[in-house]
Specification:
heterodimer; A: mainly alpha; 5 helices; B: mainly alpha; 8 helices; globular
């Protein structure tokens, strides 16, 4: 039968010690900086390439209807909006001083941040889906005038089926998983937050 | 060597062991504790220029370590604490000594406490002064003393129960 003082003595005689050296930490600091920079760089390259491709199509191909140009503009708008939001998040995380706040304030910050990301990842994807569907619809006007009727119907069927699969299978599954994951996280954070407030 | 790097090395040498204990007490797993300790010191480096001398540097580092531990919950699905602590014992290549087993049992008992209790008791065991613990955990000193009394009793009870098993 031990008392707390015995446990304290045991604690001071313990051997578990960190096996991470100072140099390892410095190496990780350098790596984490370059990892983020690399990630941002490749995201920027992909977005820039997509925009360049769409702009080249805009300039090189002479479309017969204005609706196609509107479809291209909507698609470019979607890509830019997504990228700007990602960048803003990176900046917000890196400049945030919430880590230095009291634990209960930090947990509240984490909850709010996670909820915001969840909204972005679920509701906004729904908005992208709608905008892209509109863009394809507008492009269908061009197709109607420039390709044989059977090709137009095939294009329409493929696009509609693809959107239905995306919406009812992939999106539903993704949103369900995301919501369950975030709810578990929020519940856990809420439980910890309560522990710090309780007397 | 730059001044910032010298200061950082000093901070690492003075605090790494106690930060590791805090992370180990919180997670009950040495690998996770090493990861969290690394993450803590990376954040310390990143925020070093924001330190405003409102508190001691060690308090400031502890605050970062506590918040890093708390955010660990959101990224890692924790395995059952018993399973983790069996792992601690199994990981020793040699036959564990009685002392090692007792320390493992102590960590196992800490892991059975609630998250905030694990954080507070680890600091108490490391003999951090109460006003500093109050500042780190954002709890008033009066409230903290009551909590510590309760946690000490709870931990001792859990440890003795585990020892009997």
């Amino acid at each position: 039968m031990k008392g707390f003082e015995d446990l304290q003595q045991l604690w001071h005689r313990q051997t578990p010690e960190p096996n991470v050296s100072f140099d390892t930490i410095l190496k990780r600091i350098k790596e984490s900086k370059s990892e983020l920079a690399k990630k941002l760089f490749w995201q920027s390259v992909i977005v820039a390439a997509a925009i360049i491709v769409l702009l080249s199509v805009w300039v090189a191909v002479s479309f017969s209807t204005w609706t196609t140009y509107l479809a291209l503009a909507l698609t470019m708008g979607c890509i830019c909006y997504f990228f700007v939001n990602q960048l803003a998040d990176y900046r917000r995380i890196s400049s945030s001083h919430s880590l230095l706040s009291k634990p209960q304030e930090y947990i509240a910050y984490l909850q709010a941040f996670k909820q915001k990301r969840n909204r972005f990842n679920t509701r906004n994807y729904m908005a992208y889906e709608i905008v892209l569907a509109v863009a394809f619809g507008l492009y269908a006007v061009e197709m109607y005038f420039s390709v044989p009727f059977w090709a137009f119907i095939t294009f329409l069927l493929v696009v509609v089926c693809w959107f239905l699969i995306c919406h009812f299978v992939f999106m539903k599954q993704y949103i369900k998983q995301e919501n369950a994951r975030i709810q578990e996280m929020i519940d856990n954070l809420g439980r910890i937050n309560k522990q710090f407030h309780e007397s | 060597m730059s001044n910032q790097r010298i200061l950082f090395q000093q901070l690492f040498d003075d605090n790494s062991k106690r930060v590791y204990h805090l992370c180990y007490g919180y997670t009950g797993d040495s690998d996770a504790a090493n990861d969290l300790m690394q993450e803590t010191f990376i954040k310390v480096w990143q925020h070093l220029d924001t330190f405003r001398n409102q508190s001691q540097l060690s308090t400031w580092i502890y605050r970062i370590a506590v918040n890093t531990c708390l955010s660990y919950l959101r990224t890692a699905k924790r395995r059952a604490t018993d399973e983790l602590n069996d792992h601690i014992i199994e990981n020793h290549t040699e036959e564990p000594s009685e002392k090692q087993e007792q320390v493992a049992l102590l960590y196992q008992s800490i892991a059975q406490l609630e998250e905030n209790e694990r954080i507070i008791i680890t600091m108490v065991l490391d003999e951090i002064p109460y006003p500093e613990i109050a500042e780190i955990s954002g709890i008033s000193e009066g409230n903290l003393r009551v909590k510590i009394h309760r946690i000490k009793h709870k931990l001792t009870e859990i440890y003795n129960r585990n020892e009997r098993v």
